[in-house]
Design a protein that fits this description.
single chain, alpha/beta, Rossmann fold, two-stranded antiparallel ribbon, 7 helices, globular
Length: 302
Amino acid sequence: MIVRLVALIFLLFGLGSVPALAACDLAPAGTTQWVHLPGSDRALLVHVPAGFDARRPVPLLFLFHGSGGTGAQILERSGLTATADRHGFILAAPDGLIPNRDGFVWNIPGVPNASGKLPGAGDASDVAFVLATIDALAKRRCVDPARVYATGYSGGGRMASLLACVAADRIAAIAPDVGLRAGRPDPADTSRPDPADCRPARPMPILSYSGDRDTVNPIAGGGPGYWLYSLEAAEARWAALDGCKPEPLRRQVSATVSEKVFTGCRGGVEFASRLVAGGEHVWLADNEAMWSFLSRWRRSRS
């Protein structure tokens, strides 16, 4: 009996000859590298933070480029690699698979891309690629699947919004930059989101950034076929989806940044929308504030 008990203790607590779980094989720390997914011909740029401890899975932040851009470009322009180094999260910057100009666009079903074309049936699913990336990095014990987040610029913000709509069970929180959407424009009334197109599995914490002088994705709506409804319409729809009070609190974050905060949301989540006075169609996010918001949220493992 005693021998069996000792053997059970060794088995449960990893003592004796029981091998330890493998460490993450991304190395070295503080570098950006291409990572190929098993069974896929796609790869993505991954920034491993300085001081990364390969024995301990860390948060993962997806950074999506704008339409016609690349992962390498948005890594440089956003400045998020420095934020990742300071706070110890892995930063993943994939390329979309649909070519456009000198870069790529994202496959957002039912919504025309920057070239005006609807994604075709033969276009690869970027959502599936993101979920496969999470699975692969979690299997390699590099990332904590309960702490996966998404941000992105312009078309990349729309990609982050899409994940909030269709993969809320895998993404803990999002922070779109000049790209907050709540589903495709309603074909019956393009001044509002299609209520059938965004049905998240749970309330989604959101911090968005927009500029009042953005002429590409104007806050008043209009613009290309993928935009059309206003920022206010997107905010109202997400407030409803998250079960928040419809009238937000308003505050001044700085001399140029105002914020709407929707409160009383289901599950204790928060939804905040920041507007930058004089902000144009550029990366507007305050990276430190964005990470401070995102890192507060964990996805339930259930």
